[in-house]
Design a protein that fits this description.
Distance between the termini: 119 Å
Radius of gyration: 52 Å
Largest sheet: 2 strands, antiparallel
Shape: elongated
Structural class: mainly alpha
Number of helices: 30
Strand order of the largest sheet: 1-2
Number of strands: 2
Strand content: under 5%
Helix content: over 70%
Length: 940
Amino acid sequence: MKFLVKFDTIAYHFIKIMSSISLPRVLQNRKTSLDQEREQFEKIQAASISKAINTAENPVKEKHARNAIIGTFQEKSGETFWRCVTKLPLQEHRIVAWKFCHVLHKVLREGHPNVVLSSQKHRTLLQDLGKLWVHLKDGYGKLIQQYCELLLTKLDFHRRNPGFPGNLVISEEVLNQIGDNDVNNYFQMCVEMFDYIDEILNLQSAIFGSLDMSRSNSMTSHGQCRLAPLMPCILDSAQLYDLCVKILFRMHATLSPDLLSGHRKRFLRQFNILRQFYLGSSNLQYFKTLIQIPLLPENPPNFLVQAELSTYVTQAAIVLPDEDLLENNSMVGELVDLGLGNSVSSSDASQRSLSPDLLIQRDQIIQHLHGELNSHQNLIIQLKQQVYTLEMKLSKKDSELTQERLIKDELLQQTNSIANFEELDKKYKLLEEKFNKLKEVYTKLREEHITLLRQKAVVDKSLKGSEKITKFAQAANTLLLSIKSDVDKQLSNLRTVEFNMTPHRIKIEEELVALQATVDSTTRQNDELVLKTEMLSTELNELKKKLENVEIMKSNLELKLGESEDLKILENTKWFECCRKIIEHTFDILDDPSMSSYTCSPECLILIKDKLVEAINRGKDNAAVLAHYIAMYVVFGKAVSNTKSNLNDAQSLADRCKDVSRTSVKLLTAWQTGSKIGEYCEDLKSAVNDVESMALSTQATESLGDLVEDELSTMDKAIEEAANRIQEMITETRAAHSGIKLEVNEQILDSCTSLMAAIRVLVHKSKKLQFEIVANQGNEGSAKEFYKRNHQWTEGLISAAKSIGFGAKGLLDAANDVVSADGNLSRLIVASHSVAAGTAQLVVASRVKAPRGSRNLDELSKASRDVTNATATVVATAKSCTQLVQQPEDLDLGVLNEHQTKRLEIECQVRVLELESSLEKERMKLATLRKLHYQDGDQS
């Protein structure tokens, strides 16, 4: 019976193990504290953003918007904010879209600096939102489209100028670092700020235009919903206005006022609109308790007077403190103004009149507090990350330990159950069969014994007292004793069998334990073999991959080797072609009339010649250097020819310079083809030597003193001829024209006549000063020797005289073209500036050698101012005549239908975009030329 119980227990555990093997094991991952905190943070942010951006037509509540702003500092990014707002019905509900723009504006201004960077990739959403709502006839449709344009402009401004924070508040030092003290950077930056202000003004105009004063005023929820976004607009525009004023004063201190006339006009237009915007907003009751709006002065700053910069007062808008926040004493000590200077936490009215220095100090303190807050937040995040990492490691170790334990139990149970079950089953079946047979025999004997006992009782009762019965009873007792003996014998045999089976059972159990140990050892060896097999297979696969990569790299190298040969040939061809174009371009500009005003001494040619010959000797690997020195040598040779009084010598020298260009191009071709290299090298060296000898030999026979007198006389003659010709043109135009054309021609010619008269006076005063300069030399030599001794100054004086003569001729040609109806007034303006530049050069050259306190120098300076005023008169006359001639074409809108009106509107927009694109390109080109000019000036 014990054996049966043991067998049933083993079978029960085996069935339980087998059923548990098929069940999946799921290890539940535990959430770390950092995950829980992150989930709670996102939940709070989503709730605050959904409360701030809802469908109710009322202004955004400041506390909900501030929670979204604080969230960006906790996260150091705007990713959670964008994930939340993209789930809102921005394209289904107009109020939601409008409030979204307002909250995004505040987050970009006051949020973490990384918000502006992370918002750049969501520009498409703003573009699509504006395009969608612009078709809505309701007032909010146009407002949403205009607000999206403003936000896109803000993102573009910060993308081009990453040094500006979201609230645009920077110090003078930061502004210097951003602009790099480069006038070109300030020029472009000011244009981008003007564009920014234009979008703000367009939005405020649309908001005020959409308000119905009978229903939507500033004290209704409908009106406040539309007016609330004007507060960040006022903060931005006030800061942009202050930066524009400071930048314009800087540019006027460096550049000519005429170059900045467009900036001044644009600033003046925005100044007037901004002033009206601030005045209208300050009168609204809604803004009086929320923001302190700056009041601009009646007259704009005069950038032509640098002294006004010292009297300029920074205009800044200040957000008034929230009364709810001030009442909560527990929060007053912890709140940090995230506006970096645009909000205040004190209700002291005197703070509104703080000086700019104190405001800057306050901003620096706030920035310092922000830095400390950021460092503490970084430390907290690092500690949380460490906790999270340790928890993840602990969870991973627990999971691995549990997995190992389960695998171990499974292997043990599977080994005990599967490996030995069949053998045990056979042994147990044999023993069970024997036991069942013995049990059946015992049961049969027991039943027979009971039957016989019952028969004996019956017989004893029926045959009691009878001898026969007695004999029968004795026989029955004998039979009963025999049967009983047999039964006892069978029971004894059964006990003996059971006793003999006990050692076998113990032996079987011991064999099972040994078998289990063998299975464990075999399992471990098998696992080790499987692991080694997998490692060898992995190494084999890695070797195969490496072999394949090596073969691919070999194929690629062979392919690249073939391509590199072709590319090398192609690059050499392009390289020589580029060098040829440089030399050919230099050859072309030698005939440009503007080259006639440039001069140079022969000593410059000598310095360049040695480097040029060295470049020729180095061969084709130095082709670029050769092209560079050839261009310089040819241009300087042409400049030397301009200093020669003998026109034949000057022309011969210029022609020989052209020969140098032609021969150098032939040498480049020879280097490329590999033929006649030595021949062309000798030809080029010969041409270079000829230019040098012609420049030096001509210089020895020339007199700088004669050149000065000749150029001054030529200049005086050219001015006199130009003045006479202008008088003739006045007579001719009065006879040939009438009306507006006559009026325009007379104004232009009169202004040109005044300019020529002023220039003649200037030349006369210059001659008198030259005589005084030479006379003051005493016994140091004649005038020619003085000019030769100061040859560099003399060459500058000659260049100035040539420039004036050339400018006078250009002015005459421009005036003639305008009068003949074929010219452009802009050319006249340029020619006038050229004349003024030449006279300024003449005055500067004369002032260098003039004696101190010279009366002639004072008269020359006065004549120079008269020329400047006359030039300004010509420019102003040309501009006024341009407006007089180019009358705007009146458009009869009454005869146009809706389709024609829309088509004309689209054409006008296309034309405006084309003109803006052209203007942008020309501005970039002008900035590049100026930068190049400044670099050349620094090198010289």
